[in-house]
Amino acid sequence: MNKKHTILYLIILFALALKLYGINFEVPHPDDYITVQAAMHFGPAQVELSGHGLYGLYVWPSTGMVYIEVLLFSIYYLLGWAAGIFPDIDSFKNLYLTDPSSFFLICRIMCIFFGVASVAALYSLAKRLYGHKTAIMAAFFLSANFLYSMHSQFIRPDVLATFISIMTLIICLSILDTGNYKYYIAAGVLTGFAISIKFTSGILVVLIVVAHVMAQGKELFVESKRQLSAKVLPRILISMGTIFLVARLLIYAFDLVDINSISLSQDEIFNDNARNFARFLMNLVTLSGVMSLIAGLILRVFPSVRNMVLNIVYNRKLIHGMAAVLVSFIIFDPVFFLNFKQQVLIFIADANYLGSNQQFIGIDSLGFLGNLWWYIKGSLNWGSGLAIEIMAGIGLLIVLSGKRKEDMPVLVFALMYLLVISAGRYRWERYAVTLMPFMALYASVFLNTVMDKIAPRKISENKRVVIMAIIAIFIVLPSTYNILRYGYLLTQKDTRVIAKEWVESNITSGSRLGQDAYTGILSAETYEVSKKFSLSNENLDFYIENNYDYLMVSDTQYLRYMNEPLKYEKNVEFYNRLFAQGTLVKEFKLRDDLWPKSEERFPKYHIHISPTIKIYKIK
């Protein structure tokens, strides 16, 4: 084992240790149930779906992740059966229904594996582009990345999709270097798998094309042998554009489509979402018409552009690579095609879900620039640390100024991904998870470039490495501290468990309780429980008139509304009135020294650990 590999292995062990700390936390993240339950449904136990996600299905297109979980659960059952723990499949199913903690732990270990594997994959990618020193720094920065470590402990698709994306980028570099047919197929298969995990991974399709274009170089502009297509393609595009625009004009002028009359369900909120989606499709038709018309005119006027397009479209390797994407997606996400109508309905609902039903308060779009700034000052900042963010920004400029073709696939992916999530309908801190490896990569480019520029030449290479290591350690200290603090919080007894135990010991059975989300799970046999996403969707008088005894609220909920009081005026009014008029019976919260109130860069309500729970008596 050489010295270079030893350092990498130590970094991987460091990443593993940080991610394992606190892994067996007591209360699963709300999203943890989604793919776990789907895997138990499609796996040998065939557990019935019980409503997690929209229409009892998982919201994410994470079928590829579910496949892995089904495999792991099957191995778990077979090992348990061989050891005499599970005499039959019913005992296995019963364990999940009564105590699913081992199933969650298995899936968390899976996600941690891919989180750690991402560190090794980033090293491989960075080494190909910038050499060993930069690669080691990039791997070290990612190993101590707070946002990436945190989401490696959740059973979500973000880390797995990011790992697959890095591996696909490595293969795209092989396309660029060699143009070998096998790399097109491999990239296509991985891309289809990644899309089955998370739809935003579709950006990888563009990466395969970019790698192909960069590999072909000037050959792309050679006159195409497809002369018939050279004449027909511009005409087809111009005709399509004209038809789309004329159709849109006729629909508008004569009111041929009454969007307001669309009714696909008895649920009126769902119908509103469907109408909004129909309006989106109308705008898409208009945009497609304009783009087709412009593209057709450009191809007709500029022969070099026409040759480039035809040489791309008719390239056998690229066609087969795109076919591999489709076949891979069909294999890893057959549900999308086998139940296509339902998938479309879910897509319609998910696309418009937030604005109507207020299921994800505080994360709806601020507009493109607003979202972009939100990610820059928020997730990218506290997720990686301010120093890494600044260094990554400068490192990105350094790479852009270099104008190397081998940098293009990674640059295009990172920038396109940031633009896509910024253009999204809503904003999650977890959407930035995929950007964390590239933050680490470009920060390491900056550090290595600075050291090469300012370090005196008389300093030996070993001393330079030591200096860089010391600087890197100081840079990751804040993020490492956050990871350790977060892990420690995971090891503490969750306030939802403490609140549940207190209620069972102190509140009379048969009492009527209303619960916000994130306030714990109470027995419906002991109490008359009404649990809602937010109690503030009704006014306080509703609960008083309907003889509720107690209301349990969580700061994971009320802080979302109170952070935007003008937007959620009625909800804020409900909580303020409850706090003023209700009798506070008990409050459960973490010690202030564990979670300082002034710590704004560590947004508590985003990560669902031990929320502050308040119980008010209103009767």
Overall description:
The chain is mostly helical. It is built from 26 helices and five strands. It has a five-stranded mixed sheet. Helix 17 crosses helix 20 (408-422). The longest helix is centred in the middle third of the chain and has 34 residues, at 268-301. The protein is globular, with a radius of gyration of 27 Å. The N and C termini lie far apart (71 Å). The model is unreliable at 51-61, 352-359 and 596-603 (pLDDT under 50).
SS summary, helix count: 26
Distance between the termini: 71 Å
Q: Return residue spans where pLDDT drops below 50 for at least 5 consecutive residues.
A: 51-61, 352-359, 596-603
Strands, total number: 5
Helix/strand/pairing category: mainly alpha
Estimate the global geometry from the Cα principal axes.
globular
Q: Main beta sheet, described?
A: 5 strands, mixed
What's the rounded overall pLDDT mean? 82
Strand content: under 5%
- Provide the helix percentage: 55-70%
Summarize the structure.
By secondary structure, this protein is mainly α. 66% of the residues lie in helices and 4% in strands.
Helices and strands, with pairings:
Elements: H1 3-20, H2 32-42, H3 63-82, H4 89-98, H5 101-130, H6 132-143, H7 146-152, H8 158-178, H9 181-197, H10 203-216, H11 227-254, H12 268-301, H13 303-313, H14 316-332, H15 334-338, H16 340-357, H17 368-377, H18 379-384, H19 386-402, H20 408-422, H21 436-454, H22 461-491, H23 495-506, E1 512-515, E2 528-531, H24 540-545, E3 550-554, H25 555-562, H26 569-581, E4 583-588, E5 613-617
Parallel strand pairs: 1-2, 1-3
Antiparallel strand pairs: 3-5, 4-5
